[in-house]
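Usage

Read records sequentially. Each one opens with the input sequence:
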Amino acid sequence: MNPTPLFLPCAAGVEPLLADEVRAILTAAGAPRAAESVQLGRGGISLIGSVHTAMRLNLESRLAPRVLWQVAEGRYRDEEDLYDIARTVPWTDWITPRQTLRVDTSAVRSPLQSLHFASLRIKDAICDVMREQTGERPDVDPRFADLSVQLHVGEDYAQIYVDLSGEALFKRGWREVQGEAPLKETLAAAMLAAAGWHGRAEDGDLLDPCCGAGTIAIEAAQIACGMAPGLQRSFAFEKLAPFRAEVVAWQSMKAEARSRIHAPAVRVYAGDVSFRMTDFATRNAERAGVAHAIDFKTVDALQRNAPTAHGVLMLNPPYGERIDAKGTGSAPGGYRDSRETFEGGGTSQAFFAALATHWKRQYAGWTAWVLSPDAKLPQAMRLKESRRVPMWNGPIECRLFRFDLVAGSNRSEPR
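and closes with the structure output:
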């Protein structure tokens, strides 16, 4: 197949980080033209790439949740125009009638009254094309379809994509059971990318003192070990006709990625106040193949001393009970509250103030990055942030705060 427009969606604000990541991946893979074609867009990046480009991005991108292959586009006024656009695609080149399909629709300022009806018309077009050419039509499978089609409609322009990823790329293949409110791997990777932490010796060691299920630590360890994030999972494109001739190339690509795994140049430290969560995170790290690269320890974040003289603290503070100091329990309105009631709670302010004091005494020379939905977190910690990066944790708008920790870095106590 000829090089085709690809689109990699991402969370708002991550577009520049994703563009840098994709350029680095493609340049290292010897695809400079594809790297040069990368363009920032709203909610993702676009580029021109081949089937090999698409396979490699599925295997190696940590920040993109999907890789989409554009198959059609055009202006529209109503659902019948969308039907006509979808009929221009030779769908028998993608699947057989014995395979299954699904269609999902997203929109920005679209005049359409029903996105569900728009999805149905795309499905009708696919089935009509295949019935006319083969005498049969595929069935719809809303969960595990062989062909997943994405329709995106704007004010008067539509694009139709084939989803080459299948399950979202944040599902790396190592997580069996999720903890409470788990952090997505793509967000953990975005936090590390925003901090400029790439697992190099000059980046320093990394510590997550509130590790929960271990997502940040595991992402960091895989980065430090040069481990491609998609090595432990399968992808939708493996079932699609245009990629059947690429089996040997795909196996070679994965073998080459495995050959790049190396011993880490830095150490990753992690822990939690809960023995249950530390054990849970350790088992996740074992399945992810990086248990050897992470030092886990069950200890209260308010009591954990710095493991080295310099490094990076990276944390998504939990809102549940495991943030409590050992043996203290939770007062009404404290850390047993839900994520939605975290902001403004008196107990949370006390915790963050105590955490900042502890960091001032034990972590001078470190850099701390804290993800929080509370825009007033620096005031609660009585620290001055040197940077704040907008990020979205699912539907929750957050900020990733950077604090440069030096002795005496706390703001003056109120008189």
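Summary fields computed downstream for this record:
- The radius of gyration is 24 Å.
- Residues 115-134 form the longest helix (20 residues).
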